[in-house]
Recover the amino acids of this structure.
């Protein structure tokens, strides 16, 4: 029986009328969804922007009656069709309140729609901070939890490992609280649940006293960085590498907690004019003169080549400027395979760079690290992890070749035990994922228990988790440039 019994008696036309104030008009540009990178787009049957839990229940009740899928979406930063749907879209934009701050026990409770950028501001008022953050902070808290988004640090888990509890709205409209001690299977499944276990309402997040980071940035040759890899990664709390294949150099960024006064770095001339505007223009020209990409890669490496020490508030060091839209893919490999994998990638990319007709990778290849965890679908589940990500920028929004490059990159990562980042486009299906994730079937079991009708199963979930192969579930059905057969 449907648990929210008082809604059963509400006529459907009354539901529509109640939802009208939070329904995006079809004529609005927001009635169509396009992800941040401009690479995937969809036209949902309806787009709702609820402001309360009760309104979310109405949306689920309408979806139940009409047999529609409900897909929650935050800012749409995922570079895949993870957020796309032809059913109902629920934007969490206005579900963004901070509900509780406990300074003594160092945790906060926030609605899932709050962005990390807004959360940083709230935490700073209480002299608190997130323990680790990824490269950007414009994602929603719910979004980073449901995709096991990560920062970097060999002793730091994915951000979902800092979640202490969740409050969910299940497909039948029931409100449930889960944690490691209460409905633990649902909790573990939801920590990387791809939005398919239920609608995340609230997140209880462990935090720590506010801190500054001192980051040292220096350029090494590729071979020197690989030779020193273990000592570099274990020598600081948070280490990330930026590899510039055209220059055969790696920028090493090593950050540690510090009590030193802030010493921010950067300038408009270097960071905005040269690193962004000039680089974007050169990348645009290279769409017509592909050989120019090698020069642009070396130019970018030169811009990043100085020895720099920066000290700032933690999230300002963790975060990076990410202004150019892009195609990207990222895979997680066991840490012990890092050296061999990087050598294989280096051999391949040197061949491409040296070949006048070779593929032309953009830059940098970002390499980060995380500790192991026990989250069923986390790419770091059961193993200390090295994350390797590659990008192809879309200067001024124009498309670029990337598919052959990514396919060869992914082939090498798969050979080294790679698991794809869930928020990014990949081609793995249930049979392959089941081999990579020992608890894959446990995850599927929980989905069948809490959502037997598939209310939260959009095309992405049906394809990758349940193996649907029909045309409407194809991985390119929401591709913005489907007609383009980019090499």
């Amino acid at each position: 029986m449907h648990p929210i019994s008082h809604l059963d008696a509400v006529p459907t036309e009354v539901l529509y009328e109640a939802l009208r104030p939070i329904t995006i008009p079809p004529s609005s540009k927001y009635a169509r969804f396009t992800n941040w990178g401009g690479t995937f787009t969809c036209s949902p049957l309806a787009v709702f922007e609820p402001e309360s839990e009760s309104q979310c229940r109405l949306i689920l009740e309408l979806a139940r009656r009409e047999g529609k899928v409900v897909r929650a979406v935050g800012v749409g930063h995922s570079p895949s069709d993870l957020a796309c749907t032809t059913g109902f879209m629920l934007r969490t934009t206005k579900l963004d309140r901070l509900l509780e701050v406990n300074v003594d026990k160092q945790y906060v409770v926030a609605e899932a729609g709050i962005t990390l950028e807004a959360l940083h501001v709230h935490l700073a008022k209480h002299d608190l901070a997130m323990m680790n953050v990824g490269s950007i902070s414009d994602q929603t808290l719910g979004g980073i939890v449901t995709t096991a988004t990560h920062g970097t640090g060999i002793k730091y888990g994915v951000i979902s490992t800092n979640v202490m509890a969740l409050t969910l709205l299940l497909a039948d409209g029931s409100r449930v609280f889960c944690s490691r001690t209460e409905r633990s299977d649902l909790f573990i499944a939801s920590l990387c649940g791809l939005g398919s276990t239920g609608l995340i309402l609230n997140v209880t997040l462990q935090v720590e006293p506010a801190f500054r980071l001192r980051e040292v940035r220096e350029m090494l040759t590729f071979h020197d960085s690989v030779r020193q890899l273990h000592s570099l990664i274990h020598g600081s709390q948070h280490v990330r590498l930026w590899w510039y294949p055209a220059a055969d150099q790696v920028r090493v960024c090593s950050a540690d907690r510090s009590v030193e006064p802030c010493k921010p770095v950067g300038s408009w001339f270097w960071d905005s004019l040269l690193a962004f505007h000039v680089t974007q223009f050169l990348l645009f020209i290279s769409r017509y003169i592909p050989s120019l990409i090698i020069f642009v890669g070396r130019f970018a490496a030169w811009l990043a080549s100085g020895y720099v020490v920066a000290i700032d508030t933690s999230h300002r060091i963790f975060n990076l400027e990410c202004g150019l839209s892009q195609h990207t893919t990222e895979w997680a490999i066991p840490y012990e395979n890092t050296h061999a994998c990087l050598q294989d990638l280096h051999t391949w990319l040197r061949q491409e760079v040296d070949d006048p007709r070779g593929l032309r990778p953009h830059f940098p290849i970002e390499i980060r690290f995380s500790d192991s965890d026990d989250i069923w679908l986390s790419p770091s589940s059961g193993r200390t992890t090295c994350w390797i990500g590659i990008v192809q920028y879309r200067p001024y929004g124009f498309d670029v070749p990337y598919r052959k490059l990514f396919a060869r990159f992914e082939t090498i990562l798969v050979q080294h035990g790679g698991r794809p980042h869930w928020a990014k486009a990949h081609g793995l299906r249930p049979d392959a994922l089941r081999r990579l994730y020992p608890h894959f079937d446990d995850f599927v079991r929980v989905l069948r228990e809490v959502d037997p009708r598939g209310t939260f199963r959009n095309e992405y979930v049906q394809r990758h988790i349940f193996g649907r192969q029909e045309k409407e579930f194809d991985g390119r059905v929401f591709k913005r440039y489907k007609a383009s057969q980019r090499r």
About this structure: The chain has a mean pLDDT of 95. The two ends are 52 Å apart (CA to CA).
